[in-house]
Design brief:
- The structure is a single chain.
- The protein contains eight helices and nine strands.
- It has 277 residues and is of the alpha+beta class.
- The protein has two domains: 142 residues, Alpha-Beta Complex (Sulfite Oxidase, Chain A, domain 2); 105 residues, Cytochrome Bc1 Complex, Chain D, domain 2.
- The strands form two sheets. A five-stranded mixed sheet has the order 2-1-9-5-6.
């Protein structure tokens, strides 16, 4: 009898351990605003009544049309205290992060781009991301329906997502990026700062400002305009591999739809402006 009781106790303990282990391995997404946060599991999201089919005409990560099951990000952020100029920091589980304008994530007009949190069903996993060893884009992935590729930065398609956090804008968080008040509103320098924040800042810091860790700081120890000829720098921003290659190269090429020639000129103008300062 004692042996039977011992066996039953061990089996019960093993079952509890396996249940805890399974629960710990269930992916969860953290949604945070100033002072509060909550965590929601993939199981909960897959059972959410707001889940819908989302057809994407062109997914820049998978480089083809895709269909997902997802929840509008505007629904996930409903009730959050979001200011007019706030951003949402989308952070991946490898600590890659990008700041996305909160107004862009929460807009609901049928004529505007709409952001969805795509949720990968383990029973129907997504394919591996082409050309990488990162597996699929899951378990959570921000996808965009509608809008233009120039409006929605390729960096805003944030995959392997771990957290969404409402924050101040990058311009408030990192004032060293700023352009002086006497620079005219229509000056390309201002457009260059906007495009740097949208396209470059996910990977690069500038003079220590920002969170990017994938690429080098673009002001320390030197600004790129100080060692690249202007024409070569623009070519480099369009496609780094056309200028140089190196092991573990991560910076992608940007086509005209994602980064126009005018945008590249503007980024270079902003870099040159900061170098003069």
């Amino acid at each position: 009898m004692r042996a039977l009781l011992l066996a039953l106790t061990l089996m019960a303990g093993l079952a509890c351990f396996q249940a805890r282990e399974s629960q710990a391995q269930t992916p969860s997404l953290t949604i945070a605003e100033r002072g509060t946060s909550k965590s929601v599991s993939r199981t909960e999201l897959l059972a959410d009544s707001r889940l819908q089919s989302v057809a994407i005409a062109y997914d820049p990560v998978y480089r083809r049309p895709m269909t997902y099951r997802g929840i509008a990000v505007s629904e996930l952020l409903k009730g959050a205290r979001i200011g007019n100029d706030d951003y949402v920091q989308a952070r991946a589980y490898d600590n890659f992060s990008v700041s996305i304008p909160a107004g862009l994530l929460t807009q609901t007009s049928p004529s505007s781009a709409e952001a969805f949190l795509a949720v990968e069903d383990p029973a129907a996993p997504w394919p591996a991301i082409p050309g990488t060893t990162k597996g699929s884009a899951g378990p959570f992935y921000i996808v965009w329906r509608g809008g233009t590729r120039s409006e929605i930065s390729s960096e805003y398609w944030a995959y392997h997502l771990a957290a969404l956090t409402v924050t101040d804008s990058p311009f408030k968080r990192w004032p060293g990026l700023a352009v002086a008040a006497d620079v005219p509103a229509d000056d390309p320098i201002r457009r260059g700062l906007d495009r740097f924040v949208a396209v470059c800042m996910a990977c690069h810091r500038f003079n220590g400002e920002g969170e990017g860790e994938q690429g080098p700081d673009l002001a320390r120890p030197m600004n790129p305009v100080e060692y690249f000829q202007p024409a070569v720098l623009k070519k480099y921003l369009r496609n780094p591999s056309s200028v140089r290659t190196w092991p573990e190269q991560k910076m992608p090429a940007f086509d005209e739809d994602n980064l126009s020639d005018a945008d590249i000129d503007a980024i270079v103008a902003w870099l040159a402006y900061k170098a003069r300062k």
